[in-house]
Amino acid sequence: MADTNNGAGLFLDSLETLGIDRIFTLVGDHLNELLSQAGARGVEIVHMRHEAAVVHAADAWARCTRRPALSLVTGGPGHTNSLTGLATAQSNGSPLIAVSGAPAQLMRHRVVFQDLDQAAMAAPAAKWTHTVTSAAQIPFALGKAYAEASTGRKGVAHLTIPVDCFRGSGAGKLAVPRVAPMLGAPDVGPVLKLLKAAKRPVVIGGSGLWWADAGVALREFIERTGLPYYDVTMARGLMPSRGYADPALNKVAPEVFREADLVLVLGKRIDYRLAMGGTRLFSPSAKFVQVDIHAPELGANRELALGLCGDVRQVLEALNGKLGKWQAPDWVAPSAWPAELDALAVARAGDRMMHPASFFAEMRRTLPTDPLISWDGGDFVHWGRCMMPARHPGGWLRLGPMATIGAALPNAIALQMNRPEQPVLMVTGDGSFGFYLAELDTAVRYKLPIVIVVGNDGGWGLERELQGQLLGTTVACELRRTRYDQIAKGFGCGGENITKLSQVGPAMARAFASAVPYVLNVNVEGARSPFTQWQLDGRG
């Protein structure tokens, strides 16, 4: 019988104290003591097929819930497999506690099975790392990891816990430390002064708005001021916007941003997606005001007229409290970009092989429901990101700055688990889908009715376009047009093969009505997306 007063018992007690009720994992010998006790206690265990997918799913769960999530993998190759997930979550700013088992401490440096310096390996991909040295230290280590993951700029806290710590006595246990509350908002008077003096102001919202649960305050601010608002990443779906703030996906954004004389950036890094704040996207004379929870982010890539370090919701609430009667100048014309994409879809609708724009226009027209969407990467997917609306807060999951293609499937699994009553659509390409294909088994085991659209253009489409344009070759870019619908059926999913536009609507209806994971293998031509064209234009 298991000793529930040992390190494994302390681990589970600490999770309960911290409010973590779900473990994403893939079983391994270092974890058996803990998993056995977790099962006996009724803790929700989500066991998957690849350690990177485990961490991706935990990352997505953290993004869906705005709370730290826990991944648990075995040591050695289980740990090394998980590192891509750690790097992805860290770049996403997701509060993740990533735990790896390890051999007993007594055996370190004795050429023992699966002996690695795991904390050192994780350090470049994490905000904080630690190796636990005793069972009694586990509560403190988990509490510290929770605090590190969830305060300031959120990120990954990694713990290596040797198997003897899980099995050892918890006598003399340390307490779980508590996270201190946030301070209030900084003075917003100077922000209002700059906004009211501007003739062509614009607002750009990023994931910080989602993490701060700032949707209500944001909507009030934009509706009362009339400021033109563009969004990106997890801010998508918080409220209606003028469109993507990403110029690679919204052709009009560069035209507006170059004319702006004041740019208010809310919870968004001024990074590569915003051309580092440079002249490709913004006027050199434009004034920037940036609000971010992480002080080193302020002014990192663009000189600021004003930087505010604080919680973006508290800043918006303070702004709303001081707005008074004021309306910003209405200087931005309605965007013609959606109509331009729709015109392309109509023009290419009669092609022998479906054009991605035509497919997404037809899918948008015939969808029998309004789903949450998990997006992968690649040229086919970027067409969809240009053309599909974002309507649900927290319902527009992307890969993040690492562009970890393939992660859309574990992301979709977490999204569907988090919102079981809402339909979930996953959009991927034939290249990306191959990375975590076995997670279809996870979706089937947990009865998750995710509808998966696989844009099959027989290759690594984005790289094929880049290499072809820049170098005149497509070496290592071509793939077979595999029937992914047939593979899916082998896992117990539903599936169909789509070759023409007239099949799209009926297939979508069957897929969403099926109540099982369902793969639609959509045969499309390789077509350079606006995203890829933006990359090529930037290379001169």
Would you write up a description of this structure?
The chain has helices at residues 7-18, 32-41, 51-65, 77-92, 118-122, 138-150, 163-167, 189-197, 207-211, 215-225, 253-259, 312-322, 337-347, 356-366, 379-387, 408-418, 430-433, 439-445, 461-471, 484-491, 504-513, 530-538; strands at residues 22-25, 44-47, 69-73, 96-102, 128-131, 156-162, 201-205, 229-231, 262-266, 287-292, 306-309, 372-375, 396-397, 424-429, 451-456, 494-498, 518-523. It has 540 residues and is an alpha/beta fold. The strands form three sheets. A six-stranded parallel beta sheet has the order 2-1-3-4-6-5, with helices on both faces. A six-stranded parallel beta sheet has the order 13-12-14-15-17-16, with helices on both faces. The chain has 22 helices and 17 strands. Helix content is 39%, strand content 15%.
In short:
The chain is an alpha/beta fold and 540 residues long.
Give the tally of β-strands: 17
The residue fraction in helices comes out at 25-40%
What's the overall geometry?
globular
Overall structural class, as computed from helix and strand content, comes to alpha/beta
What Rg do the Cα atoms give? 24 Å
Tally of alpha and pi helices: 22
Low-confidence regions: none
Binned strand content: 15-25%
Mean pLDDT: 94
Question: Order of strands across the widest beta sheet?
Answer: 2-1-3-4-6-5
Largest sheet: 6 strands, parallel
